[in-house]
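Shall we go through a protein fold together, starting from nothing but its sequence? Please make up or recall a protein chain and show it to me in full. Go ahead whenever you are ready, and we will take it from there.
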Amino acid sequence: MAESGPGAIRRELTIGELAERSGVAASTLRFYEKEGLIHSRRTSGNQRRYGRDMLRRVSFIKVSQGVGISLADIRAALAVLPESRTPTRADWERLSRGWERALTERITVLLRLRDDLTGCIGCGCLSLDLCPLVNPGDALGAQGPGARLLAVVEPADGSVTPAAAVEPGEPGSCEPDCVPPGR
């Protein structure tokens, strides 16, 4: 809906205008809407019209994703924002404080990874006693010879984490010089 008169600011944006102003592709905006992160109204011609507050929501989504916040966590945060007014600075600060602990933990893990990465790349095998990331202090050596851990990709976030220990000779084990099943 447009205000009348020269130089008037329209209160709603088309999908193209929102895409241009936010730097986010129109297809991404449609995805965000489908996921319940933003919303629009439809005109009589079935065109999307976004309130100007959606520009701030899209910016918040971009920044949040940029620091690794999941869409589910972003959706939950946006659900507590008021629908009837543009969120204030205090609203955004309250949301970001809720993620501070998780981000601090992630930073700690990344710093440890950075500091230990050279040793990991140098060892060539995550089961060696030198690996500071997966086998610090050769803790796996106490369990006997053979492979003890297999990397498993977690489907939720794509991260790689060690699986449970597998005894040599059991299904799923990887004796020396073999390829793990399914690899």
